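Researcher: Good morning. I'm working through a list of sequences from a screen, and I'd like to move beyond sequence-only analysis. For each chain I'm collecting a predicted structure so we can compare shapes side by side. This is the next one on the list. No need for commentary yet; just the structure.
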Amino acid sequence: MKKLFMVLVLICTAAATAPAQSAYDIKVMTPAVKSALDGRKSRFAELKTLKTRGVVGETNRGYVQALGGGADVQALVAAENKDRKLVYEAIVEQNKLGAAALATVETVFARVQRDKAEPGEKVQEPSGNWN
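Model: Good morning. Structure tokens for this chain:
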């Protein structure tokens, strides 16, 4: 469990601060994982703007949720969540954590996202309440 937590902290921190792919603790940079990470990087600024405006929030399961906006926001959220899930699944698979660990990966990522949220950004607490 400690190894899982450390892997996730490294990945979450790298996703927020370092564009270099080598910062990720992904054992095999498959084309799918690379594409997912590149997609997340390309959406980062727009997603940040939507979070600041309260149109998108971070859920307690490690994904983003549209809290307003139109079809364009829904499409951005769907793309981000698809890429996050792919990365989470790769972490589980490549670190041989077992399928049941996916929920733990999601929860740890959600906690990291919640902890680094800027004032005014919407985040869902473990209880399900939005702040």
